Amino acid sequence: MSQQLITVKNNRFKAGILLGGLLVILGTYYLIKIQYKKGAVITEGIVTTNYMHGINKSDFGSTVSAEIRFYANDSLVTILGPEGQPMDVGLIVPILYHANNPGNAVVYTFDAFWLHGLIWCILPSIFWVAISLSVIGVKGSEFG
């Protein structure tokens, strides 16, 4: 099975395709987060405990999340914070939620709201870089 390369005339086109794909991946993530923030309510929650969950609740195969409680629509709502981020009990944290679905609330800090998703963007970005660099060759280049 022979490998076919798409040949381009210069490295700028190759870089444009590579960066364009990365912008689509990160831009989509950004737009999803901005859409979630639209119409959301910000309130404060309190960390009540750190909850261990996972396969067997031991050191292997389990993770810890903070249990956070806050009031929404005159009722007490309990959510789990981001996985792998235990928090101090009694800590007050900002919460972002939609009034029609307060159980789908998120902790509104950089780590919890933005960083975890950005880490998951690394996988499709690596895949896009690998495909872009392996399929697109540069005409007249000793590397393509």
Backbone shape: elongated
User: Order of strands across the widest beta sheet?
Assistant: 4-3-2-5-6
Strand content: 35-45%
Q: Rounded to an integer, what's the Rg over CA atoms?
A: 22 Å
Mean pLDDT: 83
* Residue windows where pLDDT falls under 50 for at least 5 positions: none
H/E element order: EHEEEEEHE
Let me know the largest β-sheet: 5 strands, antiparallel
Number of strands: 7
Distance between the termini: 18 Å
Residues in helices, as a percent range = 25-40%
Determine the number of helices (DSSP H or I, runs of at least 4 residues).
2
Helix vs. strand class: alpha+beta
List keywords for this structure.
single chain, 144 residues, alpha+beta, 5-stranded antiparallel sheet, two-stranded parallel sheet, 2 helices, 7 strands
Please tell me about this protein's structure.
With 144 residues, the chain is α+β, with helices and mostly antiparallel strands. It has a domain at 38-108. The protein is 37% helix and 35% strand. It has two helices and seven strands, in the order βαβββββαβ. It has helices spanning 11-37, 110-135, and strands spanning 6-8, 41-54, 62-72, 75-80, 92-98, 101-107, 136-138. The protein has a five-stranded antiparallel beta sheet, with no helix packed on it. The chain has a two-stranded parallel sheet with strand order 1-7. The protein starts with 5 loop residues before the first strand and ends in a 6-residue tail after the last strand. The model has no long low-confidence stretch (mean pLDDT 83).
